[in-house]
Design a protein that fits this description.
Order of helices and strands: EHEHEHEHEHEEHEEHEHH
Pfam family, one: NAD_binding_10
Radius of gyration: 19 Å
Protein name: NAD(P)H-binding protein
Helix content: 25-40%
CATH superfamily: NAD(P)-binding Rossmann-like Domain
Domain NAD(P)-binding: 8-132
Oligomer: single chain
CATH class: Alpha Beta
CATH topology: Rossmann fold
CATH architecture: 3-Layer(aba) Sandwich
Shape: globular
Strand order of the largest sheet: 2-1-3-4-5-8
Number of strands: 10
Strand content: 15-25%
Length: 247
């Protein structure tokens, strides 16, 4: 039996990883800012983090925040993992972090580099956006009378449960470095995805595609965040919406 620590283990992805690993009979520790006994703010580190990684074979690092702090969190986690003699650090990143000059993506790429230079055995998996993220985005945008979308931006969402399955599989294997990206089954226009969301949730909103400026927007329009050659996901956005809305 392997002892595994999952950071961000109460989040959208992390909790599913925890469920799968425990179902396989492994001892799993859940680290989050408010989840005892391993309630730790990774950005601050400290004795609580050292205790969380003590005796751990593998760390699955799912904790992240678009509001910043990922690099500090990674440095603290790496330091603690080295001291504890952790043999394997698994990290979930995002497809396109090296192609899209978007602040959050740059931070994720910086964390990848920290892990690669850590001296620890590591595995890095990049995935496209989860269905959940798009649903949250459209739900927020649909609060306005007109649903505004960035013009010309495609997407390739993937089912989070499938990513959790893959992460659990990687956590139980030997360190593999950067593995093949994982993307959803379809490259779709943002408008088509938004229309599916409106239809399934029973909302009526006109959609307006708005051209934006900047290098990040251009990179998204060009598909820098996509991996059509790695369309290994099975679940579609419509299937996700059907389950989410009890249909």
């Amino acid at each position: 039996m392997t002892t595994i620590l999952v950071t961000g283990g109460t989040g959208t992805l992390g909790r599913l990883v925890v469920e799968r690993l425990r179902a396989d009979g492994h001892e799993v520790r859940v680290l989050s800012r408010r989840n005892r006994p391993y309630a730790v703010d990774l950005r601050k580190g400290g004795a609580g983090l050292d205790a969380a990684v003590s005796g751990v074979d593998t760390v699955v690092h799912c904790a992240t925040s678009p509001r910043g702090g990922d690099e500090d969190a990674a440095r603290n986690l790496i330091t603690a993992a080295r001291k504890a003699g952790v043999g394997h650090l698994v990290y979930i990143s995002i497809v396109g972090v090296d192609r899209v000059p978007f602040g959050y993506y740059r931070s994720k790429l910086a964390v990848e580099r920290l892990i690669e230079d850590s001296g620890l055995g590591f595995t890095i998996l990049r995935a496209t956006q989860f269905h959940d993220l798009l649903a949250q985005l459209f739900g927020t945008l649909a609060k306005a009378p007109v649903l505004l979308l960035p013009a010309g931006v495609p997407d390739q969402p993937v089912e989070v449960a499938e990513v959790a399955d893959r992460l659990a599989e990687l956590a139980l294997a030997a360190p593999a470095g950067r593995v093949d990206d994982m993307a959803g089954p379809e490259v779709r226009s943002m408008e088509s995805l938004a229309r599916s969301f409106l239809r399934v949730t029973g909302r009526r909103r006109p959609i307006l595609n708005v051209p934006l400026a900047g290098k990040a927007y251009r990179a998204f329009r060009e598909g820098g965040h996509l991996a059509p050659e790695r369309a290994v996901g099975k679940g579609t956005f419509e299937e996700y919406l059907a389950v989410r809305n009890g249909r």
